[in-house]
Predict the structure.
Amino acid sequence: MEEAAAAAVSSESGEGKREIWIKHYSSSHRILLVGEGDFSFSACLAKAFGSANNMIATSYEKLLEKHSTARIHLDELKRLGCTLLHGINVKYIHEDSFLKVKRFDRIIFNFPHAGHYLGFGENNEELILMHKKLVCNFFSRARRLLSENGEIHFTHRDDHPYDNWEIRGSAKQRGLLLKEMVKFHKEDYPGYENKRGGDIRSNETFSLGDECFTSKFYLNKTWI
Ligand SMILES: C[S@@+](CC[C@H](N)C(=O)[O-])C[C@H]1O[C@@H](n2cnc3c(N)ncnc32)[C@H](O)[C@@H]1O
């Protein structure tokens, strides 16, 4: 059996419908993934569900140029019925003619990162500002595409210097409340390879450290 399928749990919903879960994600959720690297995370979910009709997976970067490992995952996703979109900038998802009319139960961005620039370490203030802008754009646009009880799942390192990004404060300012922060373990998603992206060694993976979380946010309904 495929490893992703083995990591999945099957249950029956109230209406007697078979539902497949992998960690926080169900085959009955309408799922949008943004900023995918080589699409291995999307492919893991799709394989666990056995179908990707409920998923829209997107990338921002010039994909095949940067991620030599993407082809196999894209082929699998197409076979399983996933909608694939490329060149999707989170800053404009709320204006995209295809996306703006849809609502999602889960919007997932794993390890957002504004890019790698020669001479810019992760402590660089300019780079931190770029990360913060990316996070803020993502929260303010993604919230508009959430279903009533939908959740934004933001997976990130929370150790220094990543804690400078002020993720929870940024979400709160954009009408999103933290439901919970759950430790992220890559092994829970068989086949997933977290990728650096950006222009330097883009298809390489990177260390996740010991302080890695999926932060789940939901709409603050009293926010104006
Ligand atoms: C560290 S990589 C993580 C890639 C992938 N999510 C993963 O977990 O392997 C950061 C990703 O953020 C994406 N990204 C950066 N700016 C973006 C933007 N404005 N809109 C959408 N994605 C963006 C990049 O394309 C890159 O794939």
In short: Helices lie at 3-6, 40-49, 63-66, 70-79, 125-142, 167-173.
